[in-house]
Amino acid sequence: MKLCEIVLILEKRYREMKKTKEWIVAQEEEKDCWKSLKEKLLSDHYYQEKSNYWKKLIARINKTPSDFLIDKTLEVGCGPTGIFLLYNNKEEKTNYHLLDPLIESYKDLVPDYFKGFQAYECPIENLDHSKINSYKYILAINCIDHCFDLDSFCESINKVSNDETDIYIAVNTHKRSSTAKFWRTFQKVLEPLHPYHFTSAEYNEIFQKFFTVQNIVDIEDLIIEVNNKTKESPEFGIKHFLRKIKKLPSLFHPRNILFGILRMFNMPAHDFSGVGNSIYQHKLFVLKPRKATL
Fold first, then answer.
1. Cβ within 8 Å of residue 42, ≥6 positions away
2. Which long-range contacts (C-beta less than 8 Å, at least 24 apart) are formed by 96-105?
3. CB atoms within 10 A of CB 191
4. What is the DSSP letter of 276?
5. What is the CA radius of gyration of the chain?
6. Measured on CA atoms in the order 233, 239, 242, 243, is the torsion positive or negative?
7. Neighbour count for residue 26 (Cβ, 10 Å)
């Protein structure tokens, strides 16, 4: 083997190790983020409004909640309050499986939400596909932009699919290619928790390598509604003051400084007022596997 080939191999391995380290750090930050919201996640108000949001999202794709219990379903990147919340009080949920790299920490955070579910703690890229039969439905809501490797994520979904599988991937897309390119360039500084930044058209092009894209559904209005309804009310007192003090350093994060500048030009990251001038827009891709591998 030539010296130049050895150098290229070592360079590739270094990049993979660096990417792995960055992904692990991002996962720890994601865990800490949810821990800081524990009180909110456990509130009856949040539980009800998040459940209502999931029902509306499911209706938007012309399905009913019962569809995902009747047939075998996998919710990828379920987080602590995913679609599975709708089935929390159901006795029979053996067909509904959960997958998330942080599933055990979420069980510690909100244990009652996870009772009775079959759950896998790993990225879907690391799932032992040989021991799992294919699913009728695969749901991946706001998780693909957290994954370790985009191509491997899509390939892994196909490995637990068959020709009849319906795949639903929802993701935050950029409205403008210029901001998507800027975010990709400076992602490690601006958005360490979200490695991937694309427009809807760019995601569509990526997905076409692995799936047949049947539809792209706009769900921004549902996101705006649930965020407005679950927004924390103004608080007063020592506890609230200390919480604000704790958050002060985050105000000087490059991401928040940039968002502050963009807001001055009427370009918020998320426009929860509903005016529609935000940087991001939530889209849900309705897909079929292009090549299913059992």
1. 110
2. 96/68, 96/69, 97/72, 97/73, 97/135, 98/74, 99/74, 99/75, 99/124, 99/127, 100/76, 100/143, 101/27, 102/27, 102/30, 102/31, 102/34, 103/78, 105/31, 105/34, 105/35
3. 18
4. S
5. 20
6. negative
7. 18
User: What pTM, to 2 d.p., does this model score?
Assistant: 0.85
User: Which pair of structure tokens corresponds to residue 53?
Assistant: 């949001």
CB of 113 closer than 8 Å to CB of 81: yes
Residue 24 in contact with residue 64, Cβ under 8 Å?
no
Residue with tokens 């990417």: 19
Higher pLDDT, 166 or 279: 166
Domain locations in the chain?
17-224+278-289
Token pair 């009856």: residue: 44
State the pLDDT at residue 130: 75
pLDDT digits (tens, 9 = 90+) for 179-190: 899 888 887 777
Indicate the pairing of strand 96-99 with strand 118-120. parallel
Phi, psi for 278 (deg, rounded to 5): -75, 165
Residue 5: count of CB within 10 angstroms of its CB: 9
- Residue 22: CA atoms inside 13 Å, Cβ hemisphere, count? 18
**Is the CB of residue 207 less than 8 Å from the CB of residue 153?**
no
CB 137 within 8 A of CB 73: yes
Of 201, 218, 195, 210, nearest to 274 (Cα)?
Answer: 218
Query: Residue 98: which H helix or E strand, with range?
Result: strand 96-99
Q: What is the pLDDT confidence band of residue 274, given thresholds at 50, 70 and 90?
A: low
In tens, the pLDDT along 206-223 reads 999 999 999 999 999 999
> Six-digit token pair at 61?
């794709």
Model pLDDT, residue 198:
95
| CATH architecture, domain 17-224+278-289 | 3-Layer(aba) Sandwich (3.40)
